[in-house]
Amino acid sequence: MNRVKTKLFPQWLIHLAALTPLLWLAGVFLIDGWGINPIQYLEKRSGDYALVLLLASLACTPLRFITNSARFTQFRKPLGLYAFAYAALHLLLFVGLDYGFTWDEIIPLVLNKTYLWFGLAAFVLLLLLAVTSTQGWQRRLKKNWQRLHTLVYLTGGLVVLHFALSIKGNIFKLSGEVFWPLISMIVLSILLLIRLKPIRSALRRLHR
After folding, report:
1. Whole-model pTM above 0.85?
2. CB distance 174 to 182 below 8 Å
């Protein structure tokens, strides 16, 4: 019985942490509202939460290498699915509430805004990864399933670029509101570097 509780508690903690932003948004609305442009506020917050949860999902494997503990891998899937859920909410707010599904306005806007290209590509990949995240798809795809899900690293890069190019500033010239996009780029770079074979080998030697 204790063993079951020990195994399940972190999963519940992940669900609680991932759903807390929704409770926070509800609390902000009840206390002070969502500002003069609530749709834009919700778009920004849902996008931020999707990015944070995706980076948290990408951090699970590096944490396994660093700690030499496989327990972190159980968090990877739920965090990734929650990242997709917030990304879907982000997209729905944009096309539904912001533009009212007016496709003759949305399509030209997407074609003329580079950051929207990155965002849309990232969402398509997240959708593909979410749909194929089940054990049934894992059995069907076999070895190809692992190859397919390495696209999550490309997805992370696309989301960070979408975020960096959507802010009021220039991330490449370090001007304007670049602090959080820069932090997300650094975090993603570190997570990817830890996965490199020489660093993984060094971590194994350190644990020995």
Report:
1. yes
2. yes
